[in-house]
Amino acid sequence: MPISKQFEVRINDRIRVPQVRVVGADGQQIGLLNTREALEMARNSGLDLVEVSPTARPPVCRIMDYGKFKYEQSKKVRKAKKNQHVIRMKEVKLRPKIDEHDFNFKVNHARQFLLERDKVKFSITFRGRELAHIDLGQKIAQRVIADLTDIGLVESPPKMEGRILVMVMIAKPGVGKAKGEHATGSPEPEQELAHPPVSPVPGPGKEG
After folding, report:
1. Which long-range contacts (CB under 8 A, 24 or more apart) does 42-51 make?
2. Quick one: 56 and 98 in the same domain?
3. CA 6, 30, 17, 72: dihedral to nearest 10 degrees?
4. Which of 40-49, 99-108, 144-153, 169-178 has the lowest mean pLDDT?
5. Cβ(86)–Cβ(119) under 8 Å?
6. Same structural domain for residues 92 and 142?
7. Is residue 70 part of a domain?
8. Cβ neighbours, 10 Å, residue 208
9. Which domain holds residue 57?
10. Stretch 186-194: mean pLDDT, rounded?
């Protein structure tokens, strides 16, 4: 029987009501007892009388080792936090006329982000007259989706935000393993993907 977290837990002599309904250390119902009698029963067992349902009439108390109970509960909380993952938002910037080398480089990094169970925001920026060819950006976005369809899902489909075509992908359930486990929370600030290093082979063409 879990202890209510909405009230301060009262134990032993801090339980001031005249009668309580008692649950034994083995979980069996003992029944309605005078509080002094219930407290004596707990002490004779080397345990505590703990109020687990203060709003009941009369309140429900359980005989238990309260110190051990608190220790086990704190262990469960720590373990749960350890196994939770921070949802990060990583950003990958593309251009509507991106060359093959840059496209593959950035999509491969996006794949690693998804394998770490992070969200990936793809931003395709249009400059000047490129706005007349938004279809090129849509083709890039659809190609990204196709290349990552084995591990990713589209959370936010491609849409224009000013001069930028934005799309967000998340990892499919069960995909990847996080780098270490941390407490969950709001997505962390976006982290832009760095530009690829200069290739020793003839460099790619201009993105336009």
Report:
1. 42/12, 48/11, 48/12, 49/11, 49/12, 49/15, 49/20, 49/22, 50/3, 50/9, 50/10, 50/11, 51/9, 51/10, 51/11, 51/15, 51/20
2. no
3. -40
4. 169-178
5. no
6. yes
7. no
8. 13
9. 12-65
10. 48
Whether omega for the bond prior to residue 58 falls within 30 degrees of 0, making it cis, is: yes
Note whether 162 and 65 are within 8 A (CB): no
Tokens (6 digits) for 184: 């969950």
Q: SS3 for 122?
A: strand
Counting the structural domains of the chain, the total is: 2
Continuous H helices in 33-172: 35-44, 66-82, 100-115, 134-148
- Is residue 30 domain-resident? yes
pLDDT per residue as tens digits for the range 36-65: 999 999 999 999 999 999 889 999 999 999
Cβ count within 10 A of residue 117:
20
Tell me which residue has tokens 């009501």.
Answer: 17
Phi-psi region of 61 (alpha: psi -120 to 50; beta: other; left: phi over 0): beta
Global confidence as pTM: 0.50
Question: Alpha carbon of 30 to those of 2, 175, 181: distances in Å?
Answer: 17, 49, 43
Residue 93's φ and ψ, nearest 5 degrees, are -100, 135
